[in-house]
Specification:
mainly alpha, 71% helix
């Protein structure tokens, strides 16, 4: 009597580990890619006038909130406050986006920076969503990517959050406890 044996199958635990590794690698990849996106976007935000003199750059795209309004109160805020003070808002934008890129790239305080990314994405969306030749899904996808980073705590995979969380957890200091929540 001959018996046929089926090839050995991976146990459920091994399959789960493989899936877990893939998911973690995917989250790390997404976090780094989004960090690089923000860093690359800093390049065209050029001080000191952020494009006001040539009606380009950040000034131009912020002006779209007035020229092609998405939400009337935001359009008013842009026209009355942001554009007349473009240097102040330009430096704030430059700092926010450079920080977003840097912190997401290294995976430090990732949940906090994912929230900042969501807020910045909303501001960008309210400025350019109705502008000509804008692909609205790019902003929806940016928002979704940040939501994934927020809900998955993506910095805990191949990021500084993973390395520093045990220290933060062991500490009773306010800063450590705050960083623990932000990771």
């Amino acid at each position: 009597m001959t018996t046929t044996s089926s090839p050995p199958m991976a146990s459920d635990t091994e399959a789960e580990l493989d899936h877990g590794r893939g998911a973690r690698a995917g989250l790390a990849f997404l976090r780094v890619a989004i960090g690089l996106l923000w860093i690359q976007n800093v390049a065209w935000k050029i001080p000191p006038d952020f494009g006001e003199e040539i009606e380009g750059g950040l000034f131009k795209y912020a002006s779209y909130a007035v020229d092609y309004p998405v939400l009337a109160p935001y359009s008013w805020l842009t026209e009355q406050v942001i554009l007349p003070n473009i240097a102040v808002f330009g430096y704030m934008t430059l700092l926010a986006e450079a920080s977003l890129g840097a912190f997401l790239l290294v995976g430090l305080a990732t949940r906090f920076w994912a929230l900042v990314g969501m807020a910045q994405t909303v501001a960008i969306t309210l400025s350019v969503l109705n502008a000509p030749e804008e692909w609205h899904w790019s902003y929806y996808l940016m928002f979704a990517a940040h939501a994934v980073l927020l809900t998955s705590a993506a910095g805990r995979t191949a990021g500084l959050d993973a390395i520093l969380r045990p220290r933060w957890r062991a500490s009773t200091g306010r800063v450590s406890q705050l960083l623990l929540r932000m990771s």
